[in-house]
Design brief:
The model has no long low-confidence stretch (mean pLDDT 94). The chain has a single domain (5-281), classed as Rossmann fold (3-Layer(aba) Sandwich). It is of the alpha/beta class. Helices cover 37% and strands 19% of the residues. The longest helix has 14 residues, at 78-91.
């Protein structure tokens, strides 16, 4: 699971699909951070702790970077995985919280607010899947790969090699610079060592359908709360125009671009993202 102690105390909570690990710190209005596929809450280690006056909650969602597998048969289609996120928020009594999401977590956030907008008070989407881009073309090879268990195991083992991590078909297009080794080990530990985690990851990818992503993105107009859409200027996975379209689809949406960043804005430009979040979350 996420190893960054700066994210707060390690805790667990039960949802219908299984056990979710998370880290929490602070007090005040709650802010929930949703990461993407094959990473975990460590993605937010330089962002969540920089929001004083807020209760920050960082789950390890069942997207491949988690440590505790869900129960067999859990629905990890886009809307099913969004339901896990919603159940997590419900279990902690977080109705009306701010939801900040990146990458696949942004896809889940769109699916959640398109069907249950009342669950979220404020929404922040950072570079993420949207419309027909799910999964992005550069990693679409994973869909057939995960259908063969030995192939997924071999791929997970190969990702332990730093050169492999920097390939465009892995993490190379997600950041400008390599992620620090201890964090990469955290991201990959479950995939490399736990068959249940690999099963969850395979289920997520097997059930990644563009029709679901289109329905989620086209449905974000149901969310009428304050919304901020932030895109990395150098994003190689997700077109900037998709971010602009999302912001225009949200009744109270605003679009911002962060220079010098690819998809993982919390890795490339955490300070710039923190500045935008502080302004967005400020009272009044």
């Amino acid at each position: 699971m996420a190893i960054s102690d700066d994210l707060g105390e390690r805790r667990t909570v039960e949802v219908p699909e299984g056990t979710i690990e998370y880290r929490e710190r602070g007090s005040g209005p709650p802010v929930v951070f949703a990461h993407g596929a094959a990473v975990n809450g460590d993605l937010w280690r330089r962002v969540a702790p920089e929001l004083p006056g807020h209760r920050t909650i960082v789950p390890d969602l069942p997207l491949g970077g988690h440590a505790i597998a869900l129960r067999p048969g859990a629905d990890l289609s886009l809307f099913g995985a969004a339901g896990v996120l919603g159940s997590f928020m419900d279990a902690l009594g977080l109705s009306g919280a701010t939801l900040v999401a990146n990458d696949t977590g942004g896809a889940l956030a769109q699916a959640l607010v398109s069907r249950s907008p009342e669950r979220v008070g404020r929404l922040v989407l950072t570079s993420c899947d949207a419309f027909e881009n799910y999964p992005p073309k550069a990693v679409a090879y994973l869909k057939p790969t995960v259908r063969v268990r030995p192939a997924l195991w071999l791929l997970a083992k190969a990702m332990g090699v730093r050169a492999a991590q920097r390939l465009p078909i892995a993490y190379g297009w997600a950041t400008h610079h390599p992620v620090e080794p201890r964090i990469m080990r955290s991201y990959l530990a479950g995939l490399r060592g736990d068959g249940g985690v690999r099963r969850d990851f395979a289920s997520l990818l097997r059930n990644a359908h563009r029709r679901d992503m289109l329905a989620a993105s086209n449905g974000v107009g149901a969310f009428g709360g304050p919304a901020l859409v932030v895109w990395g200027a150098d994003d190689r996975f997700f077109p900037r125009e998709h971010g602009r379209r999302l912001a225009e689809s949200l009744p109270n949406g605003r679009f911002e671009v962060i220079e010098g960043s690819r998809t993982f804005i919390p890795e490339d430009r955490p300070g710039a993202l923190v500045a935008l979040l502080r302004g967005f979350l400020a009272p009044g």
